[in-house]
Amino acid sequence: xxxxxxxxxxxxxxxxxxxxxxxxxxxxxxxxxxxxxxxxxxxxxxxxxxxxxxxxxxxxxxxxxxxxxxxxxxxxxxxxxxxxxxxxxxxxxxxxxxxxxxxxxxxxxxxxxxxxxxxxxxxxxxxxxxxxxxxxxxxxxxxxxxxxxxxxxxxxxxxxxxxxxxxxxxxxxxxxxxxxxxxxxxxxxxxxxxxxxxxxxxxxxxxxxxxxxxxxxxxxxxxxxxxxxxxxxxxxxxxxxxxxxxxxxxxxxxxxxxxxxxxxxxxxxxxxxxxxxxxxxxxxxxxxxxxxxxxxxxxxxxxxxxxxxxxxxxxxxxxxxxxxxxxxxxxxxxxxxxxxxxxxxxxxxxxxxxxxxxxxxxxxxxxxxxxxxxxxxxxxxxxxxxxxxxxxxxxxxxxxxxxxxxxxxxxxxxxxxxxxxxxxxxxxxxxxxxxxxxxxxxxxxxxxxxxxxxxxxxxxxxxxxxxxxxxxxxxxxxxxxxxxxxxxxxxxxxxxxxxxxxxxxxxxxxxxxxxxxxxxxxxxxxxxxxxxxxxxxxx
Length: 539
What we know:
GO terms for molecular function: serine-type carboxypeptidase activity. The chain is α/β, with parallel strands linked by helices and 539 residues long. 23% of the residues lie in helices and 22% in strands. It contains twelve helices and 24 strands. The strands form seven sheets. Strands 3-2-23-22-21 form a five-stranded antiparallel beta sheet, with helices on both faces. Strands 19-9-7-4-20 form a five-stranded mixed beta sheet, covered by helices on one side. It has a four-stranded mixed beta sheet with strand order 5-6-8-18, with helices on one face. The radius of gyration is 25 Å and the shape is globular.
C-alpha cells in the first residue's frame, strides 16, 4: 500500500467540550472561487451533467478514473451519474458505512467499559490474588482514566497485591494490523495497532500512540531535550540526534523500530528550532495500557509484588469488581471519529460490531456485521469490497452509487441527527465542527453548508455527503477519484460541490476548480496529508 495521505475520572464536559465549540474565523489557507464561476443555461437535467462533465475534464484527472453520483435527498432521484457502478478505492469514505453500521448495531448510547477486578482473598489492605485490567476496546481511554481506575482501587483499601497485574484484552482477537496495511506506516499514529486495551495520548484520542516532543538542547553539540506523553517506561528513546547552530538545516527524524518500542531520534536540530511533536505508535498496545495502569497504581500506593504483568489472559468468572471506567456514548464518540477521520476508532468499532453480532471481536466478524447492515439498507454488497473499517487498506473498493444509497437510507434512522452532526462541515474553522473540511470551499455557497466525509490515499480521493442548493433543495453526492498522478485533486471535488450549492433546479452555475499552486502531474514523493492526519494540524 502506498503511504496514506489522507492520520482520575474526568467530568464528561471536559471530554466533549472540544467537540461543541462554535465556528469563529475563516482560515487563511482557503481558496478564492468567485472569479471562476459562470452561468450555464439549464436543460431538462438541470444542467448538472454539462457542468460536472466539464469539471471532470480537469487535466489532473487525465488517465485517472472518476465515479460520481448526485441525487435529490427528498425524492432519491438521480440527478447526475458518471461511472456510478465503478469500484474504486474510497479511502476514508469507507468510514461512512462503518460509522452508520456502528450507530445502527451498537446504538448511539453504546459505551466501552474498562474494568479493574480482583481474584483471591482480602486480608485488610492485602489482596492475595491477581489484579485484572479488562478492556472492551475503548479507543478514547487516556492516562488520566487509568489513573482514576487506580485511585478507585486504592480507595477500596488495597495496598498490596501478592499476585500479578493481568491485562485482559480478549474481547478482541490478537490481530493487531489491518489487511494490506503498509509496513512503512507502522510507526505512524494513523496506523496504530488495534487492541481491546490501549491508551490515547491526547483528546483527539489517537489510540495506541505516544507523543514524542523534541526541542533543541542548550548549546550546539548537546543532545536535544525530549518529552514523552504520557510519561511511560514502556517506550525507550534512543537519542542519536544533535543540536546544531542556529540557521542550519533541521534533519530531525523520529521513528519506532519495527517489532520494538524503541523510538529512534536522529538527525540535527538547529538551536533556533521550535519544538517538534511526533505521534508514534507503540508495539503491543495491551502492554502499553498495562504499563500506564501499573504506574498509576504505584503512584496511588498500590504495590503489585507477584511479578511482571501478564498480557492476554481472560478474567476468571466471578472476579470481584473494584473500579470501572466508561467511555463517552457512541453518539458523542462518533464526532472526533468522523470529524478527524480517526482510523483507530473505525477499527475498534468494527471489532466491537463483530463481538456484538457474532460474539467474536475480529475484523471478519465485524465486517460481516457491517455488510449485513448495508444489505438491509438496500446496498448491493456484491458490488463492493470492504476489508477494514477505516479505509486505510487499498483493497477497499466501493462505487459512488453505493455511497449515495447509504447516504439516502440513513436519513430515516432514529440516530441520523447525531450521525449527520459528526460529518465535517465546509469552511467551519473550528476543528470540532469543520474537521477535515475546515479549510475547504470557503467564500463559496458551500461554506458552512456542505457536510461530507473526506478521504485520501496516494492516487485516491473521495468526498461524499450532503449540500443544499441555491433553491433550497438538499442534494446527496459521492465523488470518488482514483489513479491520478497529481498530488491533490481536492479542488476538483470542491468545484463539483460548489457547483451544486450554487445551482437551482432550473439553472446551473458552473464553478471551475482554481488553478492549483503546485504541480498537477507527475509523481509526488511527499504529497500533503489530509487535515486530520497532519500532526500538529496546520490546515
